[in-house]
Amino acid sequence: MSTAKNYLYNVSYQIIIIILPIITVPYISRILGAEGIGINAYTNSIIQYFILFGTIGISLYATRIIAFYRDDKKKLSTTFWSIFYLKLFTTLISYLIFIAFIFIFDIENKNIFLIQSINILNAAIDISWLFIGIEDFKRNVTRNFIVKVISIILIFILIKIKQDLWKYVFINSLSGIVGQLLLWKYAFKIINKEKITFFDIKKHIIPSLKYFLPQIAIQVYVVLDKTMIGLLTNKCEVGFYENADKIVKMALTLVTSVGAVMMPKITNIYASGDFEKIKQYLKKSFDFECYLSIPIMFGLMGISKEFCPWFFGFEFLKTANVIIIISPIIIAIAWSNVLAGQYLIPIGRINQYTISVTLGAITNFILNSFLIPKYASIGAAFATVIAEFVVTGTEIIFIRKDIDLFYFMKDFWKYFLSSLIMYIFVRLIGVYNGINILTTLLQIIIGVLCYFTMLFILKSDMHIYLIKMIKDKCKIVGVEKL
């Protein structure tokens, strides 16, 4: 399947991920309140540590190794079953440790923790890495779409009062299991049953552990924020941060979708030794990430003051400030998505990736320790932004001799200037029209028109390329219809 089709499949699902929460998040925020949202986020953050230690970096490693063997069905099948059995064994051990942890210690919200633990079992049978490795994004998109729609229907039917928090957690947790079972149906069409020896399993342990170290570091500054806010302040502050983080991450899905598509492709190209082709892909990918990430960052900063009160409810006014502060991570993660996800990891320079995310984790933990007790969710947002740029900055240092980053960024100023002008118009609309849904819609429409108009005036290469590609596709569709 072509890169363009894979990206369209992936980005279409990411758009679904963005649209569906627009339906559920306002409803859930009002029903469960900041404390309910906070309890869900806090308990889930703890569960993520058990998932992390259960999967020991296997999924990231598996995607890469599957991409290597995707053209040899026997090796592909042997590799799949070896990795699956290893992951199943390690995750079940982690689940047993969790059960011991939950019953030995006197833990608040024990019932919620137990329901959240379904996610550990979900991780045990997760085989999405197989489909990503062979670049079959259609299966993942179809599966996830079905599960998301069913979850939303159940949420509106079953969640009515604050005490329904456990139902909300159960629906989200169980939907993951259902989604995995749907994927297994397709898996047997791709791989054969193979007899697996202990040696087949053992040889994947050390390579997986190399990916485990960066996963630990990433988890520190992805999940630890919510854990530390919950421990050092209160669950309401976790709720403010969780909703801000959710909005920013929803926006990020559009930007990072290209990374999920490009990683297995570049791994496969690297196996053939074509470094020039890799650099061509990286150049286009980096330019596209800037093309999307910069306006999305400025757009979120521009609409948040008017958006949060009507979307989440006035209880979440503080969430607007958190969004404004945390939005720059969109650029940092977009760049890291190319430098690490599309270069360092696919070509096997995992040690450098590990160093970059470890420095980010250390930075995040230290800053959280000082900022969260005094500034709560606002402090955590500042810490996250600084940590993400530490990660990206370190990766830039590592690849500086391989890639001419200044050449990659030659249109950066066009995206930044266009986005800045867009931001000014968006804020003026917000100030004059006040808090309501129509204001947000107007801000988005005018913002998009302003950004694309500026890029047309400045003659951005990526903008011209995308317009040409759309025109060509339309011509092809027109000819096919005739």
Automatic annotation (TrEMBL):
Instruction: Tell where it localizes.
Output: Cell membrane
**Keyword Transmembrane applies:** yes
Alphabetized, the UniProt keywords read:
Cell membrane, Membrane, Transmembrane, Transmembrane helix
Identify its membrane topology class: Multi-pass membrane protein
**Is Transmembrane one of the keywords UniProt gives this record?**
yes
- Membrane-crossing ranges are 7-29, 41-63, 84-105, 111-134, 141-159, 165-184, 292-313, 319-341, 353-372, 378-400, 412-429, 435-458
The cellular component terms of Gene Ontology attached to this UniProt record, alphabetical and capped at eight, are: plasma membrane
PANTHER family the UniProt entry points to: O-ANTIGEN TRANSPORTER-RELATED, PST FAMILY PREDICTED COLANIC ACID TRANSPORTER
This protein is called Membrane protein involved in the export of O-antigen and teichoic acid
The species this protein belongs to is Caloramator quimbayensis
